[in-house]
């Protein structure tokens, strides 16, 4: 324990120092407040490399570090750098994906199994727009555009050889989960003129069990090479300008050598473009024109300012909190990736239709990440929805998980439905809503084709609702299917989402049908179920087809393996019991009769977290994201405020170890951002629950030009409790607010008075249950 704390503080210190060293006076001070290494350790799996908001190129170091384990985003703080590659995911679970299209500069070391050691562990430095790492013989820097990158290698010693390896087989490995490992399928690389190369790499496997997919690349150096040779496995051929392979897992590539005398101060630059269409498109995707490294860094930073940081203005004395806000905000803008014009499988007529990939996964992001983007960045939000609709149109189903141009996997429901409802009620522009509704109906009515998954052979996990036949026949998922509880709860939320659109774009019958189906979670509620040491009864419970509750191995406090083959996926029955925010009214009524339902509600919610109870809910995982805020539903909002503060202070820290679980494509960061704003969205509805802000004043400029101001008067470490609230100048007595009131055409103005005494200040209506359905 002591060692851990010690190493953590060393790391923190180190990264802060580092940011200062790269933070030369050229960069805007905002970039000094963002820690790119946040959440890279202890299972956060964050990608600390360089990209643009939702950029296709995500350039970072790929490391082999036995003590770190599988490097999901390529990065590990120590070990060997085996390549610097162009594509990564960020913060994911599952298994490592991508890590393709790599370069590695080297000098005279043996080329076999090449890997560079850093001058010392944790010597990587990064500021938004530029990454740098020092090895004994070469300093490496890189920056990124949308679909290309620019590398700068500074070779130290005049006498050294100057080489660059282009390993066309390179990809991230996941030895910890070999069943989901990626494999090299085939590829080739050849020289282009006297200073470049083109080629492609085909990869299969990974978490989504992808069929082979191909990425094309095009590289150029700012000097002609002196020699080029090729390698295949352990054989090296000098004066060879091309190599290819169709043998699985074979290692192939080119090694370029340059004349040290040609270089200026030992500097060699290389620009690389990538494409899913062709090597020509990869070449035309190269953005740099003059090997101008600084200009590309500045362009990258300007894009981040324009799209993200210039929209926020913060006034607060506590720099730790300000940095935490901006750092988490950054992490909300990495996935999915804008691949418009880069889908090789769509018809010619659709080739420029909007396309995003790397939904990793919507299961994680639908609760708070997509609702955040829909507020602060509706242009992106809209493009993401358009992409989902286009994927449905050209491939059959909108995805839940997706990478490498293929859907997979679905952990629970078809949560793209909730994204569409959220976008709809927030009035995102440029979306064909009847087509969106069609995509949702496909999920709700047409079982997907079967694709074998050894972890869950019962039904497809690629797309759609695998357990749909049970849903339609019984109104819940029986134990004949895996993840029966998770699927039942999520299909309910999904059908609620359908009802939201059906109301306007379809018939009254459809609206009523889907609203009714959204109540199906109630079918798994066993009023008689008990849990050890808890003095209340009634929990979700797996149910057999004959209507009996299955009690042979049931425990509301356990999900056993909590995995693909179990009744609940990554959450206990008691946690999933809270996952119906569209109808809290019914849930509360299930907790008891009117007289004591509120007390039981408090008791049940208190029991979930160590603040009052024990560690039942996993704060680091998505099914329980909303739960801490739900005291609002019984008008005791101060309890939500206390619990959210407790969770933030206990589990979320600055620094590389700052996330209490996988970032999950930024889902976790979006929870932090909303918590700090003092709001929590109920996805697919217009409701925000109100907690209390962490910063004295935040001003957000919306895309429509209006501003949203959130002011917390009298805020301090102790003064966290709302005493009173004004919204748009009026006394506000509800602990929730509607989207249009604060994020609409006129923006909004929230002014909190905070103090150190808990108050029940809300005398108004409780938060709505727009999906309320009394069975
Ligand atoms: C090329 O990449 C593959 C896959 O990552 C790796 O197994 C192989 O060792 C690399 N080859 C060299 C020469 O580094
Ligand atoms: C590479 O693999 C893909 C997928 O299996 C295949 O379609 C393609 O024809 C292969 N290319 C070569 C040159 O064998
Ligand atoms: C800044 O905020 C952090 C996190 O809430 C807190 O621990 C720290 O005490 C605050 N610093 C000051 C000077 O108030
Ligand atoms: C997504 O990429 C396409 C193609 O490069 C581009 O036209 C579009 O503007 C991008 N979207 C955003 C929001 O920047
Ligand atoms: C719950 O228990 C009561 C009393 O023992 C019984 O009448 C009822 O049928 C039970 N309900 C279910 C769903 O098992
Ligand atoms: C249940 O137990 C809690 C303590 O854990 C106690 O405060 C509460 O009064 C009990 N409720 C009932 C109905 O017995
Ligand atoms: C459950 O699955 C088994 C085996 O596939 C099948 O024989 C049985 O009819 C199914 N039961 C129900 C209720 O669907
Ligand atoms: C519970 O489910 C298991 C597995 O599906 C089955 O073997 C068992 O018979 C069921 N028990 C009851 C009481 O229905
Ligand atoms: C500010 O907080 C203090 C407690 O620290 C409280 O006594 C005071 O009433 C608060 N001021 C207002 C205006 O709420």
TrEMBL record:
Lineage: superkingdom: Eukaryota
Residue ranges annotated for the Glycosyl hydrolase family domain, each copy included: 281-756
Alphabetized UniProt keyword annotations: Signal
Domain Glycosyl hydrolase family 92 N-terminal stretches: 34-275
GO BP terms, alphabetized: carbohydrate metabolic process; glycoprotein catabolic process
Signal peptide: 1-21
GO-annotated cellular components: cytosol; nucleus
GO MF, one annotated term: peptide-N4-(N-acetyl-beta-glucosaminyl)asparagine amidase activity
Pfam family, one: Glyco_hydro_92
Classification via InterPro entries: 6-hairpin_glycosidase_sf, GH-type_carb-bd, GH92_a_mannosidase_put, GH92_N, Glyco_hydro_92, PNGase
Listed name of the protein: Alpha-1,2-mannosidase, putative
